[in-house]
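Deliverable D4.2, example record:
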Amino acid sequence: MTELSSLEQLTEQIIGSAIAVHNTLGPGLLESIYHRCLAIELRARTLRVETERPVYVVYPDAPIESPFKVDLVVRGG
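Output generated by the structure prediction step:
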């Protein structure tokens, strides 16, 4: 399997998970609820998920004091 087809399959699983969560919950809830449910759905599809992962920025040689957080980091299973 090529790297591109792996990425395409992972992308399909992520989009499918987001659609499944939306179809189950519908619109109008807090983002934090969708975030938690999406992580559950992704893990149910045997994907590795990290939530609220800090990312540190250095510019150009100086670290920025407070890191920002990535909502979800997803890797194939």
